[in-house]
Amino acid sequence: MTKVLVLAESKNGKLRNVSFEVLTVARRITSGGEIAACVFGSDGEKYFEELAKYGAQKVYVVDNEELNRYTPDCYKQALLKVIGEVQPQIVLTGHTSIGKDLFPSVAARLNAGLVSDCTDVETGDGIVFTRPIYSGKAFQKKQITDGIVMATIRPNNLEAIENPVAAETIKLSSEIKDLRTVVREVVKKATGRVDLTEAKVIVSGGRGVKSPEGFKPLQELADVLGGAVGASRAACDAGYCDYSMQIGQTGKVVTPDLYIACGISGAIQHLAGMSSSKVIVAINKDPEVNIFHVADYGIVGDLFEVVPLLTEEFKRA
Ligand code: FAD
């Protein structure tokens, strides 16, 4: 019987939605097998009910103060401990900053195969993971045929479906030792805005926005839609906005329900970060730009005229 272990992630005292998406993937893979989830940190137990709602039959909580903040050293020790306990065939998590950092080192330690940034998972003759390659120009199907299978799943890409089960919590004490790095303090930027990687709507600005002030109408539209504001690298490089907003190959990968690209030409490196958005709207004054090839809806016009009009319309709706 296949045993799957899901590393669930919390942020600001809440489980991240991607954890539920990954549990849904786990269900697809096990088809009747066992699903275990693990959470780290001293508030881990409070997530038990939510994890059980999405199908986790066993919830392993590694309660140690060192795990309240992520460091690769301590998370690696904790995850190896849980893997030793559960003995899963498959270990999954979200393709988040933590997943991207932690899973390769744990896979290397276990000599396990790792497939990262999966956008689909099929079962049948083994488990086949689909992941984008060449900045999203093509998709690769990968199968690990030997040993433990590890994979990170792209957030916001596969639907999280509830499947409540009776679950039990198992508390594991973990001695975290020989830490090479210790996080003393995390100073968060108090934006009060929606997290870009979790946003359902993203209004994104490129070089066409022309200045930091040019982002204001985009922010107004995002606020009306309950979304977040992103940017192309050109806009970040030009100093119009912070690099934390960059979307693309060397920025964040996002999969919102609605992506509104304003004054963005659609370079392949930008598309790598947003082309799997469910609906793409492009606003650009040049009808020939590449972004219109990937957009579901295109508006040829000046963004400084179009964006405020959209904001007004959405306010009325
Ligand atoms: P431009 O290509 O200059 O496009 C600006 C657009 O604005 C034009 O299409 C113009 O018609 C339009 N415009 C101007 N004024 C208006 C107006 N008033 N109204 C409407 N439209 C207007 N880029 C990323 O975005 N993310 C990445 O992660 C990334 N990683 C990279 C990694 C590497 C290794 C390299 C080499 C490049 C990377 N880039 C990345 C850069 C990428 O190649 C492009 O240079 C960049 O995406 C262009 O940004 P842009 O579309 O905003 O600018």
TrEMBL record:
Which residue stretches, if any, does this entry annotate as coiled coil? none
CDD domains in the record, alphabetically? Answer: ETF_alpha
Task: Note the InterPro entries from the entry.
Answer: DHS-like_NAD/FAD-binding_dom (IPR029035), ETF_a/b_N (IPR014730), ETF_a/FixB (IPR001308), ETF_alpha_N (IPR033947), ETF_asu_C (IPR014731), ETF_asu_C_CS (IPR018206), Rossmann-like_a/b/a_fold (IPR014729)
Q: Which Gene3D superfamilies does the record match to this protein? A: HUPs, TPP-binding domain
Key word Membrane present: no
Keywords of this entry: Electron transport, FAD, Flavoprotein, Transport
Which family does the entry's similarity section mention?
Belongs to the ETF alpha-subunit/FixB family.
Q: PANTHER family attached here?
A: ELECTRON TRANSFER FLAVOPROTEIN ALPHA, ELECTRON TRANSFER FLAVOPROTEIN SUBUNIT ALPHA, MITOCHONDRIAL
Q: What is this protein called?
A: Electron transfer flavoprotein subunit alpha/FixB family protein
